[in-house]
Amino acid sequence: MALCLISFVIEMITIISGSNRKNNKTLHFAKHAYEKLCLETTEEVRFLDLSTIVGNVVYENMYRDSQQPKIIQDIQNNYFIPSSKFWFFIPEYNGSYPGIVKLLLDIMSVREIKPSFNNKKACITGIASGRAGNLRGMDHLADVLNHLGIHVHPNKNPISSIFKILNSEDNSINDDAEKTIQNQIIQLLKF
Fold first, then answer.
1. Is 71 a domain residue?
2. How many helices (H) and strands (E) are present in the chain, helices listed first?
3. Is residue 64 part of a domain?
4. Would you name any one GO CC term (predicted)?
5. pLDDT for residue 10
């Protein structure tokens, strides 16, 4: 008699709000996408807000896996290793993406690099107050993610002129931004 074991792999998606600045506007878009994505999938969806990283994670031994800050190890163990897909929301800082995102990726690349990054998938949404929606920053991040072994969806979505599309009273977004986020949800789930 043959026994067939069926294994169900539960996928997990992590949405990353890529700014460590308090009261940042990126958080509103990322939270909105999180709420919408949770309604569209049975996959587990987790939300990582980089503005909650408190304290100093930059010190001499941060690139030694046994001496990494506990908060970085927790982020890696709870958000990166179990995820099969990521959705990065990255604001434009000085023509690229925030240093906290690069620092986080750099630190995690010395401990459990393959389980954290290898053959996983990512979508990127750029957030900017200007016209380009952080196009350059999305390309920079895509290059880094590709180097780490993450496959980046080719449609990187810019959300530009955020102060025109983000309601200052309740932080709701306009219909165009809503469509952009909804389209990227569809792309992420099919990816």
1. no
2. 7, 6
3. no
4. cytosol
5. 62
- Report if pTM > 0.85: yes
Q: Which tens digit of pLDDT belongs to each residue from 138-157?
A: 999 999 999 999 999 999 99
Residue type, 58: V
In terms of residue numbers, what domain contains 178? Answer: 12-53+76-190
CATH code of the domain containing 159: 3.40.50.360
User: What is residue 32's DSSP assignment?
Assistant: H
Neighbours of 76 (CB within 10 A): 22
Quote the longest CA-to-CA distance of the chain.
66
Q: Which pLDDT score, from 0 to 100, does residue 186 have?
A: 94
3 in any annotated domain: no
Answer yes or no: is 62 within a domain: no
As for how many domains the chain has, the answer is 1
Average pLDDT, the chain: 89
- pLDDT reported for residue 1: 44
